[in-house]
Amino acid sequence: MGGVLVCGVGCSGGEPAEGSGALRELHDAGAVLVRAGTSRATTSMEMATGGTRVTIRGSGEYDFRRRVGRLTVRLPQDPTGVSEHRPITELLAPGALFMKNRGAGVPADKWVRVDTGTLSDGNLVTGGATDPYAAAEVLRGARSATYVGRTELAGIAVRHYRGTADLALAAGSAADDGDRAALRAAAKGFATARVPFDVYLDDRGRVRKLRHQFRFVAVDSGDSGGSDSGGDSGSGGDSGPRGRGPSRQRAVDVASTTLLYDFGAVVDVRLPDARDIYAGKIAEK
What we know:
Blueprint: E1 4-6, H1 17-27, H2 29-36, E2 38-49, E3 52-63, E4 68-74, E5 88-93, E6 96-100, E7 111-115, H3 132-138, E8 142-153, E9 156-166, H4 167-173, H5 177-189, E10 194-201, E11 207-222, E12 245-261
Antiparallel strand pairs: 1-8, 2-3, 2-12, 3-4, 4-5, 5-6, 6-7, 8-9, 9-10, 10-11, 11-12
Helix pairs in contact: 4-5
């Protein structure tokens, strides 16, 4: 079973070299991906609240040097087995998320642009997929991690580490201003700034698999007869819209997993022109 404890700030001089070196490797994970250039990616985001569990899956490609990517995100089917939504195309860029087939009254040929720095989660969960580079940048906040051992992923030898990252610490050391703003927002917006993670690195230090566990508090409108509230912070006692009762809170656990492979693949991501971005009102659901 694993066993090498990786110590963060304040380690004694007797810490094993492989331990302190591994922690530096986690902090540098984003920079290693930039040097790698590009990759293919698959994502999954599993959300659990109460007895309900929903999984959103995505696939695509990412250019770590330009910090742009494209994902096709597939929402879960409804209980009858009929898909409720067409796949959503997402373009990831520094400080921005672009979505097509967004629905909610947006024309099919238009993109919706979201400033990720304004999102309470920094777009770590909003889009149904965590930006692969942002996911690696969260590791800048790792204070400690345990080396679990060596294993294989799709025939590739990897080293498995498990630990907890601090989003506020990650924001303070993020390499990019856009990531800094997004991580700072996430540190304030989640129920806790501490994010458990499992990461698998190949022998070049490249992230092959990264799983984060986030928790946030969702606020539901206070319709009569709703479920009991969850969570322990925020404005759960505030009044909802006219004719409704107090809003209710519920804790939502989100496990986000990113798999990276086919490093060096040709990736050509082009962001939308201004004329292709929807400027109208998005319908309320």
